[in-house]
Amino acid sequence: MGKLVVIEGLDGAGKRTLANGLIAALEADGRTVTSHAFPRYGISVHADLVRDALYGNIGDLSDSVYGMAVLYALDRRGAADEIRKDLGEHDVVLLDRYVASSAAYSAARLHQDEHGEFVRWVRELEVERFGLPVPDLHLLLRVPVEVAAERAARRERDDASRARDIYESDGGLQARCGAVYDGLANINWLAPWQVVDGRSKVNFHSLLEPLFTP
Length: 214
Fold this sequence. Notes:
alpha/beta; Rossmann fold; 5 strands; 13% strand; globular; ATP-binding; kinase; transferase; Thymidylate_kin_CS; nucleotide biosynthesis
């Protein structure tokens, strides 16, 4: 059975770059790897509804923290069987965002921390009720909020298809989300967490070494 590894972090932290580096390192070590990114825009109707809401195209839906979280959760539930299949066929399944994203962003919207009601609720919904596969490892790509915001803005300038949504444009939300992420990492929520400094050179080979050490 393969290992389920999740990359988490603020918008603009560099998760896609980290994922690409990890995939290259794993393949160089002779391991098989496949990856998914959430939300699954263009694949899942629930993800597409999320996108519409985040850009203000579904009235006041985005105002509902729980409503948005249910859409995110249904998107992940729709991918659960594929993730399980991939875990049976590959050494590593790498996810760009997963359950912890909803826990961090939604708790931050409600001004709660990692011990709050929402974090408990999202675990009950997605893990206990929906039965989503539990990660073996979270990688928290940590960068200062200001750095993440500047990267997201530059990405938006360079690629019109990656315009920032209402979450990405809210600096206060991003700061609170970063604090919740740190809290989730400190308590090893759902699975072990490893913090990666997004401003330093990353040793891709060493990040996943504990997963394959007897």
